[in-house]
Specification:
Layout: E1 2-10, H1 14-32, E2 35-40, H2 45-51, H3 57-65, E3 68-73, H4 89-98, E4 103-109, H5 122-125, E5 129-135, E6 145-148, E7 151-154, H6 160-175, E8 180-185, H7 191-205, E9 211-216, H8 217-226, E10 233-236, H9 238-252, E11 261-263, E12 268-270, H10 289-301, H11 306-321, E13 324-325, E14 335-336, H12 339-348
Parallel strand pairs: 1-2, 1-3, 3-12, 5-10, 8-9, 8-10, 13-14
Antiparallel strand pairs: 4-5, 4-11, 6-7, 11-12
Helix pairs in contact: 1-10, 1-12, 6-7, 8-9, 10-11, 11-12
Bound molecules: nicotinamide-adenine-dinucleotide, 3-isopropylmalic acid and manganese (II) ion.
Family: Belongs to the isocitrate and isopropylmalate dehydrogenases family. LeuB type 1 subfamily.
Site (Important for catalysis): 141, 186
Cofactor: Mn(2+); Mg(2+)
Length: 350
Amino acid sequence: MSHHIVIIPGDGIGVEITAVARQVLEKTAAKAGLALTFEEKPAGGTAIDKMGVPLPEETLAAARQADAVLLGAVGGPAWDQVAPELRPERAILGLRKALGLYANLRPVKVSPALADYSPLKPELVAGVDILIVRELNGGIYYGEKGSEKDRAWDTEVYSAMEVERIVAVACQAAKVRRGKVTSVDKANVLATSRLWRQTAGTVAAKFTDINLDHLYVDNCAMQLVLAPRQFDVIVTSNLFGDILSDEAAVLTGSIGLLPSASIGDGTGLYEPIHGSAPDIAGRGIANPIGTVLSAAMLLRHSLGEDEAACRVEQAVEAVLKDGYRTADLYRPGFTKVSTMEMGRQILDRL
Ligand code: NAD
Ligand code: IPM
Ligand code: MN
């Protein structure tokens, strides 16, 4: 059976990093005897320039029909002044919503080779292995919005059903990890958070061997840098998850390392957690590892190819162990490589 993958390179470094991840998928497939077909589609600023909209119909239609979607990143200063409903970021928000991708899995794992690359002390970050489960189809991202001349508003809405299904994803994930779920909210202030906290308790109680605790988001932000190893699975709302995952990326040494999987009702979408990095775009120096590890998540979650996914993850680990570093992680004494060269080193170890 053949699997069809839609690749959306997007903007900025998205083009450079998806090219590497595609090669990794191609080689992994060849090794594992998997038949994969690929199709590239426009979205984001590139699509605005070419077709006038951030998420063209043909891209959405292709995503719906695909077995999985791999996305680089969208956005950039060139499109910062366009109307809000036409911004490049709308492509991602539109895909997540249209495909019903309510669960965003963001693993934050400190590589043994990089334990002293975080600005935090190595003894704090060594062994960190956190899964952030971010709600992705609701909250303040999708509530009613509006603006007048000197007033603007965004509203946060959550239904019990939306909280139930994301907390269930977190508990399910924790069952095959260390069994601990930390639900993060702002229940001392927000009504949505009070519903969140109560619902999380009810859902977790239905799982055996799950230890649920609750943290306010401000405290969680602090705990993440104070004692990150206390966390196993963190489950939280769309906005809190966005912010906490960029913070948690610092534990690993670079945001360029972090992958994600967005899953739910429709085709799974896989993307690094970082953006289009306009400050380094077009120079061939971006770290492709977050996208390569997103491709591994694609193999695991959408294609059921766990072994192939593990091979990709092991190849990445081996390259880091062997001292290859893109600019974001480079230090004297190590081998500095471009985006493409990092890709070649990963391919060599597959
Ligand atoms: P960013 O994640 O693009 O960049 C933040 C910093 O991290 C920059 O210094 C960048 O150089 C660095 N960085 C990011 N990825 C890297 C990589 N792979 N290798 C090395 N360094 C890397 O965040 P930003 O600058 O706030 O946003 C830039 C644009 O990207 C904005 O338009 C934003 O809306 C968009 N964005 C898109 C996505 C997405 O497509 N999923 C995610 C976040 C931001
Ligand atoms: C992310 C990004 C997106 C988000 C933006 C680009 C819409 O920051 O995937 O983390 O806020 O979800
Ligand atoms: Mn983000």
